[in-house]
Amino acid sequence: MLKDKFSKPQIIWQKPMTLVLKALVLPVIASIYFFGWRSILLIVISNLFGFLTEYIYNQFYEKPVTSSVFVTGTLFALTLPPTLPLWMAAIGIIVGVLFGKMVFGGFGRNVFNPALVGRAFIYINFGNFMVGGDIWKEPAGGLLGGFIKYSSDVITAATPLVTDQIVSYKNLLLGNTAGAIGATSSLFIILGALYMIYKKVANKKIIFSVILSAFFLQLLFYIFLEGTMNPVKSILSGGFLFGAVYMATDPISSANTKLGRLVYGIMIGALTVVIRVFSNWPEGIMFAILLANMFSPIVDYFIKNRNKSGEKS
Question: Which of 108, 57, 84, 81 is nearest to 251 (CA)?
Fold first, then answer.
């Protein structure tokens, strides 16, 4: 019978995934401070339904759950607006884990970053709850901030990427601005990046190539196109740094060759800027990473073939 297939959950704790979770501690703390305890509820819901999706799917193949699902669930939750209905978060992570990872064969075989697959799904299907001025919240202030609140309670115009409001470098660095719950504090994201680079669970070539390619292309547009955002503010705004550090460096969906990682990173940085400047989507980093995920196997394939041709000659 079907119920006989379900056994006690077994979780394989992978050291790299545990280190990434540790690197996410600061963004999680920032999400509570700026947007209240509802942020934790979003994170819990995302992890719970992500875990259940992988657990139920794997029962039919008698496989254990891997700790990577908790990284996926946490990353997914930290990219969400603070006002997103909880049931939408549940649907998003189910789609992300199921169609972004499990249908490809589970951990280690996914082509796309599953957290971004889930986010893209709700972004497209529930657009009113993912973009626009009325879904963002002004960060909580004061010494204790959101630690004494369920949620921040003042609706703001929008994030710096979709409004003309002037946000200081200080606020962009610390995170005191509207945005996704875990992506506003550039300082904490940078500290997380340094930790992951030190522990060798994130490839620094990818991070730096994403940031530098975006910076220089944004600089060109800033010089020659009127109304384009300052390149430094562009990098510090929205979810760019969060995507560059935590999403683009996913070892499964990114390129694996040394040169391929540089090409992959440059592709993400450049596509992000092009999407931000010329499309109606203010963020860009999500679609840029998913597009780069699609091309990373091809990039690696051509680089490996070129290396083999060079060896034969």
Answer: 108
Query: Is residue 189, in this structure, part of any structural domain at all?
Result: yes
CB of 123 closer than 8 Å to CB of 275:
no
Position 3 in a domain: no
Q: Encode pLDDT of 25-52 as tens digits.
A: 999 999 999 999 999 999 999 999 999 9
Task: Render pLDDT for 212-244 as a digit per residue (tens, 0 to 9).
Answer: 999 999 999 999 998 889 999 999 998 999 999
- Domain extent for 300: 11-307
Q: Residue 2 falls within a domain, yes or no? A: no
Number of domains in the chain: 1
Decide: 106 and 63 in contact? Cβ < 8 Å.
yes
Model-level pTM?
0.92
Does residue 297 lie in a domain region? yes
Question: What CATH number did the domain enclosing 31 receive?
Answer: 1.10.3430
Span 139-196, pLDDT tens digits: 877 777 788 887 766 566 566 665 556 788 898 898 888 889 999 999 999 999 999 9
Q: Which residues make Cβ contacts (< 8 Å) with residue 133, sequence separation at least 6? A: 156, 157, 158, 162, 163
Q: Counting Cβ atoms within 10 Å, is residue 227 exposed (0-12), middle (13-18) or buried (19+)?
A: exposed
Length of the chain in terms of residues written = 313
